[in-house]
Amino acid sequence: MAVLPIRITGETVLHTVAAEVTDFDDSLQHLVDDMFETMKMAPGVGLAAPQVGVPLRVFVYNWTDDEGVLWRGVAINPELWITPTATGEADEDDDSEGCLSLPGERFPVIRADRAILRAVDLDQKPYEIVAEGWLARIFQHEFDHLNGVLYVDRLEEGYDRAVAKVIKKKGWGVPGQSWLPGEDHLED
Fold first, then answer.
1. Cα 101–143–98 angle (5° rounding)?
2. In degrees, to the nearest 5, what angle opens at C-alpha 74 toward C-alphas 71 and 80?
3. CA 11, CA 6: separation in Å to the nearest integer?
4. What was the pLDDT predicted at 185?
5. What Rg, from alpha-carbon coordinates, does the chain have?
6. Is the pLDDT of residue 188 over 70?
C-alpha cells in the first residue's frame, strides 16, 4: 500500500463529475487499498478517488460511532438518497466540517440528518446502509466529491467569503497543488 498525494481545491479533478467504475480489476483493488492508507495517515473519516487524482466514482470511509460501532467500507458507483435538509443557519459547532482537499480548514454546512447509501463493493456485491447523524454527513460529503462538489461550495453567505479569503491567502484554487499525508506538515 502507498500513501497518495491529496489534491487541494483548484485541481480540475476535484471540480468535475467522476466516471462510473467499469473495470473491477487489480488496479481498483490497489487504488482502494491506497485510499484507505492515505485516509488513515491524513487522518480522515472519508476519502473520495478524485481527492487522490483519480476521476472514478469510488469513496472509502472509516468512522466509529458513539456506540463503538466501526463503519468501514468502500462505496463504488454509489447512489445516495437524503432527507430534506433543515432550514436555518448552520451551527458553527454541530455542523462544522473539514475536508482533506482544504487541509486545516473547517466551516459549518447544513446537511440532511439521514441518508441511504446504495453501492457495490470490490466484489461487485450490492449493499445498502441507512445512515443518520455523522455517518450520513460523511456519506453526503464524499458523494459530493464524486459530483465535483466540495463542501465549501455549499456554505452560507458570509462563510463563502471567508473561505474565498483562505483560498486566496494560501495560494490555493489553481491546478497542481497537493499534500502528502505523513510527510507534509500543514499549518492550521
1. 35
2. 85
3. 10
4. 58
5. 16
6. no
Side chain identity at residue 85, one-letter code: T
- Going by C-alpha positions, the residue among 17, 68, 50 that lies closest to residue 60 is 50
Q: What span, in angstroms and rounded, lies between the C-alpha atoms of 79 and 76?
A: 9
Report the phi/psi class of residue 91: left, alpha or beta, with left for phi > 0 and alpha for psi in -120 to 50: beta
d(C-alpha 142, C-alpha 59), whole Å: 6
pLDDT tens per residue across span 115-167: 999 999 999 999 999 999 999 999 999 999 999 999 999 998 889 889 999 99
Q: Provide the CB-side half-sphere exposure for 26 (13 A, CA).
A: 1
Q: Is 22 exposed, middle or buried (0-12, 13-18, 19+ CB in 10 A)?
A: exposed
For the beta carbon of residue 9, count every other beta carbon within 10 angstroms: 22
Enumerate the active-site residues.
142
Residue 37 has pLDDT above 90, yes or no: yes
**What span, in angstroms and rounded, lies between the C-alpha atoms of 110 and 123?**
34
106-108 and 46-48 as β-strands: parallel, antiparallel, unpaired? unpaired
Check: CB of residue 102 under 8 Å from CB of residue 145: no
